[in-house]
Description:
117 residues, Jelly Rolls
Amino acid sequence: MAIxxxxxxxxxxxxxxxxxxxITARGDFDVQHTNVIVAPLPSVxxxxxxxxxxxxxxEGSQTGxxxxxxxxHLMLAGDILTCTWTGGDAGKRATxxxxxVEYPAGTGMKATSGQGR
Length: 117
């Protein structure tokens, strides 16, 4: 059974303006939307954000603040999606939001291709 999910992780940027959060797929997860925000405003420095999937570059943002993407990707159970911010203001809270549909492990490819519905 497919379940619409939203995962939200946040971190306070360290003294170098960097921070990292990760989301691990419990089942197969069809990522449909990602969003990065750094708050509160105003900000002096605008950080970049880099997404990696299992350590490999997935997607990035030159404006790691108030940026979003609808690039879809299937994460399999156990995959790790990480967002890393650099170059931001120390002490700001960086938040990574991922929205999509979660399927039981091993069924995601069928479900996203229309074969498992």
